[in-house]
Amino acid sequence: METKKNKGLFSKILIIFIILGLLLSIILSISDFELVIEKLKETNVFWMLLSAVISILSVVVLSISNQVALRSLDKNITYFDGFLVQTTEPFFSGITPFGSGAQPFQIYEMVKKGARSDVASAVSLVNFIVFQTVTVIILIISLIIYWNELWAGMGYNIFYILAGIFFNTIILVLLLLLGYAKGFGKFVTKILLFFQKYRWSKKWATRGLEKADIFIENFQTGVKVLMPKKRILIASTLLKIVSFILKYGSIIFVLIALGHSLTPSEYLYLTAASFIAINAMMWVPLPGASGGTEFALGMMLNAIPLFYGGVKNPILIIVLLLWRFITYYLQLIIGFIAYLLLKRKNKKNDELINSEEN
Asked: How does it sit in the membrane (predicted)?
């Protein structure tokens, strides 16, 4: 079973790097390849490293924000174990379409570490509700403030951003219904019963029916306990906002590393565009929304004179490539390291238990 899981995991990682190779070949074939390489050689290493450190810090702060909620409900899990579980998030979100892989893995690991299933479900999904709430609010505010700039850069392609905000909002509404609506469990059951009638969906619908009632009951029970803890929610929310600022602001230092500067208002727009590109394009059904994310940011940056010319502008291409590495691939690596450390600790614990039993 473990071997099969590992094969599935590494096949997903392989797909990610195949997608990366295809994107690189397409992007670099459009732009002046030699000029891009020349510009990359001039990159200031200090500012690039600072950008990378800031991105890593954003993962740490996000993990701490999730850990705050976990420790408020369950202290059986050690700080380090809880931190590792939370730090795997960018890895499992990054290798699965729609960023859907983190929560199931985290719930599984928390239960394995001794947390009650209702607590694990509540912590993971309440953290996701807080994350999604902050995301939707920032997306809407950014859309209102920067509508003219977004329209100037994207034109009618802004529909993709609007679609992304709509899907994010729908996800948030469904999560709130899942947490608070008493009759929502029956509604989910009816949907699963409908899909159980068809051969192509019968298998996963049947699996869903077996788990849905218990999962929803556990989640709603946990939500009732966690949501009234206002200090915990405020602390978790503020830490997530700090994490967002660090992650999406890292693109500023990428630009500085390339020897370019913008006005303060352009820097703010650059940060907002980075946030919008990653979060509004998650509906693209590829790991990390690859392709859609780069397309969206490239279009949005057309509103800044430095990036005029689109994909034929080498500065834009370099910024896109470095930004994508800093905010996606680097965080993916950090999450993968956390997963390996967690797996190693689990193996040692299992060996210890087996030796005590013998």
From this structure: Multi-pass membrane protein
